[in-house]
Write a structure and sequence with these properties.
single chain; Hypothetical protein af1432; four-stranded mixed sheet; three-stranded antiparallel sheet; 16 helices
Length: 325
């Protein structure tokens, strides 16, 4: 199977396990889960799916020679995401919403209820090994380090939001050594770190994301309280959830207003002196490794000002939202 990807171009996948996983109902569901949550009303034309990112993480690992087990782990790493992605953190885990970790917390248990363990067994792979992130240093690392997940979603978002025309410059300057992602030059590492910073402040942790998280969670929590949907429905797809709830718009005026809010049809202000809702957004900053004068160093070790950026941007963003109605 030839995969044509917006970040990596055309890459062939021939491994039976990857093909079976890609075509499984569990992975196919992610085609109907928005990567950003529900961003289309705020940035029209930028919708892209959890499936695209999941496949992208796998393709990135394949491109840089990661073992097949790590490619599998990259492919399945987001299957526990619910409809509307991280918006659900604000529905089910409001006290920890800015950590964006709900899907991680349920990942192991969720995987075991899917078709994935049977597919792994069919092809001779150990589920326990695949589910242990300690085995896969390229796939997953804590911030501010780079990992395949982080590299893919950032380069993909940069292409989708038009911040770059393609990712070739960064991919050509990226290499793998001893389980680490390393840029070949300080210049390319710093440029990537700055791009990531721009994506974080302008999109992922920006005001539009705060409004999206608040409005989608208000809409879904209300729908849950009224029994229009169940928590089980949240693990279907964005469209299936919306189709069930939207049947009640004409008979429930409050629900209709919440829908108007989440579709950016009602104005709002961000004002700490006059607000209805406080919203915290997870904020991310990276400190890439690079080859510098024959040694491997972090960007912050070369540009000490970058340490201040990391410290500032690693704190959740805080917003104060009030709608016109």
């Amino acid at each position: 199977m030839d995969i044509r990807d917006r970040v990596y171009g055309t890459i062939e996948i021939s491994e039976p396990i990857l093909l079976d996983l890609i075509n499984s109902p569990t992975l196919q569901r992610l085609k109907n889960i928005d990567q950003a949550g529900y961003f289309e009303p705020y940035f029209p034309g930028t919708q892209h799916s959890r499936f695209e990112h999941s496949l992208g993480a796998c393709l990135l690992l394949k491109k840089y020679g990661a073992p097949i087990e790590e490619q599998i782990a990259g492919l399945i790493h987001d299957v526990s995401h619910s409809a509307f992605s991280h918006c659900i953190d604000y529905v089910l885990r409001a006290d920890l919403a800015e950590e964006n970790k709900h899907q991680d917390d349920i990942f192991d248990a969720y995987i075991r209820k899917t078709d994935i363990p049977l597919l792994l067994k069919k092809h001779g792979f150990d589920t326990e090994y695949i589910l242990n992130d300690k085995n896969f240093p390229l796939k997953e690392k804590e911030l501010p380090d780079l990992c395949a997940d982080r590299i893919d979603y950032s380069l993909r978002a940069a292409c989708v939001f038009g911040e770059i025309t393609n990712a070739n410059y960064f991919l050509e300057n990226l290499m793998v050594e001893n389980g680490d992602w390393i840029f070949k030059t300080f210049e390319s590492a710093k440029r990537y770190a700055e791009l990531f910073h721009k994506l974080n402040t302008g999109y992922w942790a920006g005001l539009s994301s705060a409004v999206m998280f608040q409005t989608v969670s208000d809409y879904l929590r209300y729908a849950l309280s009224k029994g229009y949907i169940s928590e089980f429905d949240l693990y279907t797809t964005d469209q299936l959830v919306l189709s069930k709830v939207s049947q009640h718009h004409t008979s429930d005026e409050q629900l209709a207003v919440l829908f108007e809010r989440m579709n950016a049809r009602i104005g709002y202000k961000n004002n700490p002196d006059d607000f209805e809702s406080e919203v915290y957004c997870k904020s991310r900053a990276i400190d890439p490794l690079c080859d510098y004068q024959g040694k491997t160093k972090r960007v912050s070790q070369i540009d000490t000002n970058w340490a201040d950026v990391i410290k500032k941007e690693s704190k959740p963003k805080h917003y104060f939202i009030k709608f016109e109605r």
